[in-house]
TrEMBL record:
Its EC number is 5.6.2.1. It comes from Glutamicibacter soli. This is DNA topoisomerase. It holds the Pfam family Topoisom_I. Residues 19-64 form the DNA topoisomerase IB N-terminal domain.
């Protein structure tokens, strides 16, 4: 989070609206007020502080209704961040098989130690694209991710388990887990004492809560790269969008913009996001470029139909690696 001295402008309430102060002086300059208005800071945020420089990485911070500190970033910084995120997808996809092999190995461990429980979290994120989760303050608006799920969120279902919880932005989530090995581990963890679902046992048999830092540490070690659990949502969203394109028959080819819309909406449904967020943050633009190259997309479709899951990558993921290797 940015230091307060880099966010010297303070928002204050005035009736139904707001005014802004810098060094205890009310800002009257219309150009500056227009800039602040353009940041679209949610009215519900409290303790709002705003950067004076248009070049600052963090343009504004505030506390939302759930008590969480939120930030509005400079669009240039966000664009660079997204570019870097998509740029490492080839490296992530290349290292993914060795991670999945390690996860499979650690899920076979007898004790619910740190490695086994971290592997279970990653398996859940990998299959269902959950957010990793950060500790939330109590009260209204609390949301959950993989590491912050509680035992009460696990419900029995026919030949499966259901995870029912409130996700980011208050969206209700219902995840059906049918992987037998993962189901057994979730049932085992549910029977451990404590509120949290993902708890591991140390060498003295004391239980500890699994957290995002430990999950990311496991990832970096297994993948030998600077990856985090967030990369799964980018990889999974992009792979899902590509699969949607590959499963549209060539004979029924739609206009490029319709194809792209279909791909993005499919990814958004899987991610639990709006299509706008999915397109901006999770679907690699290189995949959507295929919508404008029908011959190349048809060649990729023919390959896709011949491929099988191999080296822990499904056919859509194998095609995605091909796309990423041939695009700059």
């Amino acid at each position: 989070m940015a230091r307060k001295d880099r966010l010297p402008i303070i928002r204050k309430g005035a009736g139904r609206g707001f005014y802004y102060e810098l060094d205890s002086q009310r800002i009257m300059d219309q150009q500056e007020l227009d800039r602040i208005k353009g940041l679209a800071i949610p009215p519900a945020w409290k303790q709002v502080r705003i950067a004076r420089s248009t070049r600052a990485k963090v343009q504004a911070v505030g506390v939302d209704a759930a008590g969480r500190t939120q930030s509005i970033y400079n669009p240039v910084f966000r664009a660079r961040q997204d570019e870097a995120k998509f740029a490492r997808m080839l490296e992530f996809g290349t290292a993914l098989p060795q991670l999945r092999a390690q996860v499979r190995k650690d899920l076979r461990r007898r004790s619910a130690n740190e490695q086994k429980v971290a592997a279970a979290v990653i398996a859940l994120i990998d299959e269902h694209l959950l957010r990793v989760g950060t500790p939330a303050r109590s009260g209204a608006g609390v949301s959950f991710g993989a590491t912050t799920l509680r035992r009460k969120h696990v419900k029995p279902a026919r030949a499966s388990l259901k995870l029912e919880f409130t996700g980011k932005s208050g969206q209700p989530q219902s995840i059906r887990v049918s992987n037998p090995k993962l189901m057994r581990i979730l049932e085992e963890l549910k029977n451990m004492p404590g509120h949290e679902l993902f708890r591991y046992l140390d060498e003295n048999n004391h239980a500890h809560r699994m957290d995002a830092d430990r999950v990311n540490s496991y990832l970096r070690q297994a993948m030998d790269g600077p990856f985090t659990a967030k990369d799964f949502r980018t990889w999974g969203g992009t792979s899902c969008a590509l699969q949607a394109l590959l499963e549209v028959p060539g004979a029924d080819a739609q206009a490029p913009e319709q194809l792209a819309k279909h791909a993005v909406e499919t990814a958004a449904a899987k991610l639990g996001n709006t299509p706008t967020i999915a397109r901006e943050s999770y679907v690699d633009p290189r995949v959507l470029l295929l919508c404008e190259e029908p011959e190349r997309l048809d060649r990729l479709r023919r390959s896709y139909r011949q491929l099988k899951t191999r080296h822990h990558l499904d056919p859509a993921e194998r095609c995605l690696l091909r796309v990423l290797r041939t695009e700059p």
